[in-house]
Write a structure and sequence with these properties.
By secondary structure, this protein is mostly beta strands. The protein contains no helices and 10 strands. Strand 9 and strand 10 form a beta hairpin. Bound molecules: zinc ion.
Length: 110
């Protein structure tokens, strides 16, 4: 029987610091501002910025170019460990059986 859970397959969370591994922003680092679990994508502050030409409307009050962070595929970013830099996420369980994310390289908590 398959367990149905709402736990996202996505290991990344809002606020995580990540580095971009591919695409036009490769090497850039930023914090995740939004996780789109359904599409397996994340929005990272300052990454994959699209310049949107905005025409003045009554709603915006302002015309010009607006920077908008576009989602990137979660597989194209790596979480940053304080010690190791870009790494992979592993898990350990604490004494209460709670799942805790760890760095797969140094096994420190993420
Ligand atoms: Zn580490």
């Amino acid at each position: 029987m398959k367990m149905k859970t709402t736990t996202a397959r996505l290991k990344l969370r809002k606020g995580d610091r990540v580095r971009v591994l591919s695409g036009k922003d490769v090497g850039k680092e930023g914090a995740i501002t939004r996780v789109l679990a359904d599409s397996n994508r994340v929005i990272v502050d300052g990454v994959n910025v699209a310049k949107k030409h905005q025409r003045q409307t009554r709603a915006t009050m302002q015309a010009g170019i607006i920077d908008k962070d576009m989602p990137v595929d979660a597989s194209n970013v790596a979480i940053l460990c304080d010690k190791c830099g870009p790494t992979r996420i592993g898990y350990r369980f604490d004494s209460d059986g709670k799942k805790i994310r760890i760095c797969k390289k140094c096994e420190g908590d993420l």
